[in-house]
Design brief:
heterodimer; A: mainly alpha; ABC transporter involved in vitamin B12 uptake, BtuC; 15 helices; 3% strand; B: 72% helix
């Protein structure tokens, strides 16, 4: 028996809507099997992963804390991927945004005024965008593969952050811990509703960014340009769209949003710079972007799902002793299933027995 | 001293070479598998675990090769049978591999591993200057050289190699000629996976016989860059891998000497060198245009 793809006459709207859910269901099934293999009760494990974190208000706040960077980054990545620019270095842009945004609170801790926070956010955006501009420039100017350059820069950014917090930016009063000084109140991103939990304004930024990018994509000429250049660079050229400008636009936008995510995370959730400031948000956001079908509003939902998996990972570690490493395996599986299910949008799948293959061949030729 | 440095360069270059030569075959068949890092880390964890359990490094190597090939089959099924986007699927393979390996290897952290013995040939290995370098390295070093030679011969001197390259250059014409495009691509992908698995085993059994989650440290990605750098030619991959080996060993020696540059900045040199090398090679558009397999990364659905 073999599998054959039959192209649908037009893309299936049903499967376009259904495929993320199908993928989630398949991931849950695979996850249940994985937990059984690990010797845990699968129902209990899945409960701790995906239901338990949703039962308390403070925990919903944590969900928003984790979802904010994922959504911010993934929304930017959706523009990249739609326009056929493969930025996979969001993790690095996140880190550089966090570093540049932290210049004021770390180097000038006495500068305390209401302008500090807006300045930090702007500098975070600028830092992330500038770091994203490097692969964009190399792609446009030298035709260099942006996948590899953007990824290499992630390692460079991680090492640079490590050096900063152990070297020049180490907290002078921090007993030699590799951390910067903690940010003052003026440099801290406020909580949305501090009476009930920790969620900060980063989540609001994420929602605003998602809606704004959704509007741009679906209602403006620039959004149309993104889609045309992504699907057919040649057609875009005839329409007078510049693909070089699009490369910069996509990278600056996604870099800027990743930078904003970085400084929001540091200023809102962590409160200082440390050697590691992200549990792989920049890479998990790639999964978020695809699970959200590269649609900013879908990405909001997908970001919440991935945030839930992080949160569930912590909960499951405490309650049933499953390692938090399982989360990343989960996330990787999810992306696989999403990509596989997306095939159903354009194709019908048909299982052909070896004897039936011949007849199909004949009828197709007629 | 000088001989010692050359040997360590070879040790740093060998995993890059093995993984890159495997990926070269995959890309020559027109498939872009960005999952090298994931397959490599799976190979590393399998090789380490099996060698630890059986106390036989060769069984570890064998297991790593098999796991690498099987793992790449996941990528093959999605991109070749279900015609998913190759870039996204390769990324998925890397993310899944890193996740799974972290999970599987959790109990290995901190355990002393099994180290593969160096080759010793009486008389030859004891030769002054060149003895250790040519006749006294780890066995996989010789495998990597043979692999490069074998792939070079296969691709450019055999009919099967020509067929594989023709698929990479134009899958539609190859299909029209009756060549089984999908089947051959499956084999190429699995060969690439097996090589990446072997490269991973090299890391956890020879380079640093221990396990930690980040032990591949981007080497799979550097291997991908090497293929571009080598403009899809096996012997140039060898040159590139040794160049990178030299850069990473050079920065380690610089760290040991304490030349006043922070170690983190020195550690980022191999990654920066990758970027620089990619820029230098790809700015020559004609060179890359001529050598890039024309169907690289393009989806293929056979019409009947």
């Amino acid at each position: 028996m073999r599998i054959e793809l039959v192209k649908r006459p037009e893309r299936s709207a049903l499967f376009a809507a259904l495929s993320p859910f199908l993928a989630l269901a398949l991931t849950l099934i695979a996850g249940a099997i994985m937990f059984s293999v690990l010797g845990k009760d699968p129902v209990e494990a899945l409960y701790y992963y995906f239901i338990d974190p949703l039962r308390e208000v403070w925990s919903l706040h944590e969900l928003a804390v984790k979802a904010a960077p994922l959504i911010l980054i993934a929304v930017g990545l959706s523009i990249c991927y739609l326009s056929n620019n493969w930025n996979i270095g969001a993790e690095g842009q996140f880190i550089v945004g966090a570093i540049v945004g932290s210049i004021f609170p770390v180097m000038f801790p006495d500068f305390q005024s209401w302008v500090v926070l807006p300045l930090m956010l702007l500098m975070g955006i600028a830092g992330g965008a500038a770091y994203g501009a490097i692969p964009a420039y190399l792609k446009v100017r030298f035709n260099t593969n942006e996948i590899l350059t953007s990824l290499m820069l992630v390692y460079v950014a991680q090492l640079f952050l490590d050096w900063m917090v152990r070297g020049p930016w180490r907290n002078p009063a921090g007993m030699n811990f590799p951390e910067t000084r903690t940010f003052s109140a003026a440099a801290t991103l406020p909580e949305i509703w501090s009476a009930s939990g920790r969620a900060n304004w980063g989540f609001v930024f994420a929602i605003v960014a998602a809606v704004a990018v959704w509007f741009m994509l679906s209602r403006t000429l620039r959004g149309f340009e993104v889609q045309v250049l992504g699907q057919s660079p040649r057609a875009g050229k005839f329409a007078g769209f510049s693909s070089s400008k699009m490369v910069f636009f996509a990278f600056l936008l996604s870099g800027g949003l990743a930078g904003l995510a970085g400084i929001s995370e540091v200023s809102g959730a962590i409160g200082q710079l440390r050697p590691t400031i992200s549990p792989g948000y920049g890479f998990a956001a790639i999964i978020v972007a695809f699970l959200g079908r590269l649609n900013p509003l879908g990405i909001v939902a997908a970001g919440l799902v991935l945030a839930l998996s992080y949160l569930g990972g912590e909960a499951a570690q405490i309650s049933i002793g499953v390692s938090d490493k399982v989360v990343r395996a989960f996330q990787g599986m999810l992306l696989f299933f999403v990509l596989a299910c997306d095939t159903l949008i354009l194709y019908r799948i048909r299982f052909v027995g070896s004897s039936a293959a011949k007849t199909v061949e004949v009828t197709q030729n007629v | 001293m000088f001989e010692g440095i050359l040997i360590t360069i070879a040790t740093a270059a060998t995993p890059l070479l093995i993984a890159a030569v495997g990926e070269l075959v995959v890309e020559r068949s027109g498939v872009l598998n960005l999952g090298v890092e994931g397959m490599m880390v799976m190979g590393a964890v399998t090789g380490f675990g099996v060698a630890l359990a059986t106390e036989c490094p060769w069984l570890g190597v064998l297991a790593a090769i098999i796991v690498g090939a099987l793992f790449s089959l996941l990528f093959g099924f999605l991109t070749l049978t279900l015609v998913t986007n190759q870039v996204a699927t390769g990324l998925a393979l890397t993310l899944l591999g890193l996740g799974l390996a972290g999970m599987l290897g959790e109990s290995f952290v901190g355990l002393p591993g099994v180290k593969m013995d160096y080759v010793y040939i009486p008389v030859l290995t004891d030769l002054p200057m060149v003895g250790r370098l040519f006749f006294g390295q780890d066995p996989l070093f010789y495998v990597s050289i043979l692999l490069t030679a074998g792939v070079g011969y296969f691709l450019f001197k055999t009919r099967a190699g020509l067929t594989l390259r023709s698929i990479g250059d134009n899958h539609t014409s190859a299909h029209a000629l009756g060549i089984k495009v999908i089947a051959i691509r499956y084999m190429a992908v699995m060969f690439g996976g097996a090589c990446a698995g072997l490269a991973g085993a090299y890391l956890s059994l020879v380079y640093t016989p221990q396990w930690n989650e980040n032990m591949t440290a981007g080497r799979g990605w550097i291997a991908l860059a090497l293929v571009v750098f080598a403009s899809w030619r096996p012997w140039r991959v060898l040159a590139g891998a040794y160049l990178f080996g030299a850069v990473s060993i050079g920065q380690l020696h610089a760290q040991a000497l304490g030349i006043g540059v922070p170690s983190q900045l020195l550690s980022s040199l191999p990654y920066l060198a990758t970027v620089v090398v990619l820029v230098l090679i790809s700015r020559n558009r004609r060179l890359t245009m001529v050598n890039t397999p024309a169907s690289l990364g393009r989806p293929f659905v056979p019409d009947r």
